[in-house]
Design brief:
- The structure is a single chain.
- The protein is an alpha/beta fold.
- α1 links the parallel β1 and β2.
- It is 61% helix and 10% strand.
- The protein has a five-stranded parallel beta sheet, with helices on both faces.
- The protein contains ten helices and five strands; from the N terminus they run βαβαβαβαβαααααα.
- α5 crosses α6, α6 crosses α8 and α7 crosses α8.
Length: 249
């Protein structure tokens, strides 16, 4: 883990640097003794963790936090504030600005190292869990839509089967497009499947007709409502009702 030390106490910086040199998994990539220099080094070095003092010349720690989001960096570092002040209003303000942890001076070096490890690992864990959760959510939704298509009796070998599934996935994730079906969804599907918008519309229509004529017509009637009991539902209605069913499940 790459650490940037930001503190106007030169002696403390030296102590921290020497201590971290004894830790195989922690590396000091730089030191800054004022806020302006700290911002430049964060942008240039992109550390994993910033140990930040509050009282500094030119720009204090609060100013660093306020300007952190304006930097051209690929990933925001974890911020651990080293402070001799424990005022509730100051801590509340810094928390709002994204501080991850506070350590009151004086502190034990071993405790500081452990907190650096904990919060750096926490970042990777949270990001990994979020990515996994998103992937699992998409897979679960896709399986629900596939089961729904089978229940309706849409032939799985029809191109419209895949187009319908992706159309419903798009609506579940981004909201139903309604009147934008022809102008937005069909072109988007055409680009994804390397075909034309007209081809997508026709394939979905053929799949809906096949399900109505040879599939589970009663289920499709119940899905679409009584006013569609005697006629084949439109592409738009089928997609909208499938989205409602997925949300309901």
């Amino acid at each position: 883990m790459r650490i940037l030390i930001v503190d106007n106490n030169v002696e403390l910086c030296e102590v921290l640097r020497e201590f971290f040199e004894t830790q195989e998994d922690l590396t000091v990539v730089g030191e800054a003794h004022d806020g302006e220099r700290a911002l430049c080094m964060i942008e240039d070095l992109e550390p994993d963790v910033v140990l930040l003092d509050i009282t500094m010349p030119y720009l204090d720690g609060l100013g660093v936090l306020e300007r952190l989001n304006t930097l051209n960096i690929s990933k925001r570092p974890r911020i651990i504030v080293l402070t001799a002040f424990g005022k509730d209003d100051l801590i509340s303000r810094m928390t709002d600005l994204g501080v991850d942890y506070f350590i009151l001076k004086p502190f034990h070096l071993e405790v500081l190292a452990e907190r650096v490890r904990q919060f750096s690992c926490c970042t990777d864990m949270v990001e990994g869990m979020q990515e996994k959760a998103n992937s699992m959510s998409r897979t679960s939704t896709e399986l629900s839509i596939t089961r729904l298509l089978h229940k309706m009796g849409v032939p799985p070998h029809y191109k419209g089967f895949a187009y319908l599934r992706e159309a419903v996935m798009m609506c579940v994730g981004e909201g139903y497009m309604g009147g934008g079906l022809t102008k937005e969804m069909y072109p988007a599907l055409a680009q994804k499947f390397a075909t034309t918008a007209g081809g997508v519309e026709a394939a979905i229509r053929n799949a809906v007709i096949a399900a109505w004529e040879n599939g589970n017509t009663d289920y499709i009637r119940n899905l679409c409502g009584p006013h569609w009991s005697d006629k084949i539902p439109t592409n738009s209605l089928i997609i909208a009702k499938m989205v409602e069913e997925v949300h309901a499940s």
